[in-house]
UniProtKB/TrEMBL annotation:
Residues 1-262 form the Pterin-binding domain. It is an enzyme of class 2 (transferase). This is dihydropteroate synthase. PANTHER family: FOLATE SYNTHESIS PROTEINS, FOLIC ACID SYNTHESIS PROTEIN FOL1. It catalyses: (7,8-dihydropterin-6-yl)methyl diphosphate + 4-aminobenzoate = 7,8-dihydropteroate + diphosphate. Signal peptide: none annotated.
Amino acid sequence: MGILNINHDSFSGDGRVDQDWAVQKARELVRLGADIIDVGGESARTNREAISPEEELERIAPFIKDFREVSRDMAPRDEEQVFPPLLSLNTWRPEVAGPALELGGDILNDMSGLPDERNAALCARSGAALLIMHTMGEPKVSHKHIQYRDVIVEMGEFFEDRIERALQAGVSRAAIILDPGIDFAKQVQDNLRVYREAASLERFGRPVLLPVSRKSVIGKVLGITNPPDRDAGTAACIVAGMRRGAGLFRVHNVDMAYRVITTVHQICEGAA
């Protein structure tokens, strides 16, 4: 999953509010091997003011309309690439998700943790898949003070509840993806344990997306403050995640991720 930030304040510093740039950036991500483009109009950073739903939709709507042109006249990087690529809409507001899904979208990436049934109902109506992220509290608010009795146990309880909520809203179980929410409402040791025990989510029988790209926890471990310099740590998290059952990785550096995943597959196939 390649990240496309149509905003000015992404933590990784790679976003722009420019439609022509967004289309070209998406084409580059697809050329490098992205199966999914995850487009967002608002930074998730808690130290940035929230924008209005109207502004968020205004930023992403032109790109959604043009998305099917992104892969025109292109060929997949290899036979394993999902092609044409899928479009993921990264928003937590139902008032943005509804119109955005009407314009087109294969996945709704809900970073709010599905606090109610509204986003699930929108997915059920549109036929889009629903990506549920583990978090606590409201988006755009820091929750690093939260203490878990056991982060893995509580995350499991969270997903049991949210999956049932999605099913009740009409979402097919086959259309649900789980995201353990690295760096969201978690301290460093919580994040490391989630990486370490990501295989615990296999019991739900749904794909797991592991957020690995340039995360703050990587910066803490390596002592690196500049997010683009954390790609080596990102690569390590991809390898660890693959060994623990994760099948999707949300990344800024798609080329690096492609090379890491391809190499690991070749090694594992050879070992088999």
